Amino acid sequence: MIVTVTPNPSIDRTVSLGATLTRGAVHRVTSATSEPGGKGVNVARALALAGLDAIAVLPTSDDDPMVAALRAAGVAFRSVPVGGVVRTNLAITEADGTTTKLNEPGAPLDADALDALTRAVLAHAETASWIVLSGSLPPGVPDEWYADVVARLASAPCHVAVDTSERPLDALAAGFGTAAPDLIKPNAEELAGLVGASPEELESAAAQGDPAPVILAANQLIERGAKTILVTLGAAGAVLVDPTGSWMAAPPPITPRSTVGAGDSSLAGYVRAAVGGAEPPRRLQMAVAYGSAAAALPGSALPAPSQVDLDAVRVYAITPAAIRP
Predict the structure, then answer these.
(1) Which are the contacts of 115, defined by CB distance < 8 A and separation ≥ 6?
(2) What is the structure's pLDDT at 97?
(3) Cα angle 69, 73, 76; round to 5
(4) In this structure, how many other beta carbons lie within 10 angstroms of the beta carbon of residue 169?
(5) Is 271's pLDDT higher than 70?
(6) Sheet holding 314-317, edge to edge
(7) CA within 13 Å, CB half, 110
(8) Which of 102, 78, 45, 69 is nearest to 265 (CA)?
(9) Any idea where the domains of the chain sit in the sequence?
């Protein structure tokens, strides 16, 4: 069982334009889709498409449109009752794949709802192989919630992955010395923020095929107690760093259509490979194959295994000599 946790779920509406988005202009939409979303929900959707036993845990009322959307998508879920309505996020994709996202803050969670969500996560951890904690935190939830849950899961018989950003990610990293998840999945900007580096420098070097700055930044987190770091780099691929080594994966050439859900698909690919007993290089290969497949799909569509070209992803081991500052 793989359990994904989405504290701030959403209905993800994606509209596609046939031309470049221009501020203040009137645009004609060429297509529009709506899917149940939020980062953890997306991971569960991708894993379910691969035939894995995955369940999405999220706060939502029984009559919320989110529940009907999850059922229609065939996603197993456990809802924690709340009084608010699940937010709607809007993504605007242009013909070249450029994506502009407008995300609502989400319905607030009071202390009782947050306690119920926490207890649901801890209960599922007893039978889960992986717990995947993903996304932003809604109003009313302390920035330290992910860090607190990771600490409480330290004695559970499951692996833990976290994919978040901004203050919740900072709070999580502050606790690496005492309780670190088995995996975190920052992008270049998020990694740079954690170590005080320049995101432009990391992204530029990666785009030129030089993973050294990314690996050096990730190793700073390893020294602080992090276990494994999967750094997604968009069109440049991804880097995986753990205490045993570092690897970079180059993605296959694709025609990008939408980046919505690409990072979540990468995390799903990594977890899928990990559940199958794959070694780190294979996990990275699967992550990049899944992320690339998602970026080639329209809207918020997520890839099925038949759409994932694993063999097209090249993985390189990076020697210590190649990453000296």
Answers:
(1) none
(2) 82
(3) 95
(4) 21
(5) yes
(6) 76-80, 54-59, 2-5, 130-134, 159-163, 183-184, 229-232, 238-242, 245-250, 314-317
(7) 5
(8) 45
(9) 2-323
Interval 96-126: pLDDT, tens: 888 899 999 999 999 999 999 999 999 999 9
Q: Which amino acid is at 287?
A: A
Cα first-last separation, the chain: 41
Nearest to 90, CA basis, from 82, 79, 99 = 99
Cross-strand pairs, 54: 2
Mean pLDDT, rounded, of the chain = 93
Q: Each residue of 49-74: pLDDT tens digit?
A: 999 999 999 999 999 999 999 999 99
Q: What are the φ and ψ backbone dihedral angles of 176, each rounded to 5 degrees?
A: -60, -30
pLDDT digit string, tens, across residues 274-292? 999 999 999 999 999 999 9
Nearest-10 crossing angle of helices 111-125, 145-152: 30
Q: How far apart are CA 153 and CA 252, in angstroms?
A: 36
pTM of the model: 0.93
The residues near 111 (Cβ < 8 Å, ≥ 6 apart) are none
Query: Percentage of the chain with pLDDT > 90?
Result: 84
In the CATH scheme, what is the code of domain 2-323?
Answer: 3.40.1190.20
Per the structure block, which two tokens stand in for 206? 């990666």
- The two structure tokens encoding residue 116: 């119920």
Buried-exposed string 172-209: b where 16+ CB fall within 10 A, e elsewhere: bbebbeebbbbbbbbbbebbbbbeebeeeebbebbeee
How far apart, in whole angstroms, are the C-alpha atoms of residue 26 and residue 33?
Answer: 19
Which residue do the tokens 């989405």 mark? Answer: 6
Catalytic, 62? Answer no
Taking residues 156-185, report their average pLDDT. Answer: 95
Element (H, E) at 183: strand 183-184
Q: How far is CA 259 from CA 99, 300, 302, in A?
A: 6, 8, 10
Catalytic residue of the set 12, 64, 182, 264: 264
Measured distance CA(132)–CA(321) in Å, rounded = 34
